[in-house]
Amino acid sequence: MKKNTITIKKLAKSLLPPVVINAARYSTGRLPKTNEQILQEYFKNGRIPWSSGYGLYHTELMAQILSDDSLLEGFRNSQPLPDDYGIGIDERCIEYPWLVSHLPVEAECVLDAGSVLNYDFILNHPIFDNKKLHILTLAPEGNCFWQKGVSYLYDDLRDIPIRDDYYDAIVCLSTLEHIGCDNILYTQDESYRENQSDDFVLAMKELRRVLKLGGALFLSVPFGVHRHFGMFQQFDRELLSRAVDAFGSASEVTETFYRYTTNGWQLTTAEDCAECEYVEWVANAWQHPQLPSPIPVEADLAAAARAVACVHLVKG
Length: 316
What we know:
- This protein has 11 helices and 10 strands.
- The protein is α/β, with parallel strands linked by helices and 316 residues long.
- It has a single domain, classed as 3-Layer(aba) Sandwich (Rossmann fold).
- The protein has an 8-stranded mixed sheet with strand order 3-2-1-4-5-10-8-9, sandwiched between helices.
- Strand 6 and strand 7 form a beta hairpin.
- The radius of gyration is 21 Å and the shape is globular.
- The termini are far apart.
């Protein structure tokens, strides 16, 4: 009975016009909050990561960052970030602008290895206007941008169903750390409930195989003390070096590191990130259907990784 009730509620929401639904909510006192109200409460409550309003603020902030040409220029030239940049925000505030500022305009055929680009706020950036984008992930997601010409492949990065030397560029942000781990969060296929944490090496070899000579791979991973959280692992210097070595011959290898502190995100060195710890409760929470209540608050307002390694590799 409960299952049918949920289905009917979903059906009603899909069939009734918003004005009817809102009128009903007025009568019950459950009129939905506006985005402005949600953000006001989020700021009033201290901008706690993963609390109500975090997702909305995160999306709006990413759009603002990606439209800031001076900020993107700073990422392009590996310059220090503004003071208090990204306080209380996860590493996407580093990865997205780093990628957009480095992705070549002339690279037309692009693979998103891990579906980190499957959001309108980044696909709307002009850098993607001339791109033929393939998104490879384990299973279908809620977002689908076929109208933008995006193609989707549902498969494994350890065995990419694409011919050799096909892509001009490959994007693999915050994905390599999941390879060979328990990925049941992303698919219902029980065969992906794994513990083969060295398989990121196989994925790196496959990414090289499908990349054209002279093509670029843009890679990022959470960085610091090595930790295995079941569904992903945080890379340390040894694992990152193994990943780069697995890629093979490269005409260019550029590693850039960013660290999170109470002052936000900032450009730094690998050595300065060596002791950084991922927010443990967040890593554990992904393996459960709901976030804990109340939301735990880190002293530094960290949201996830406290350091991220961004690596630009050119196939040689």
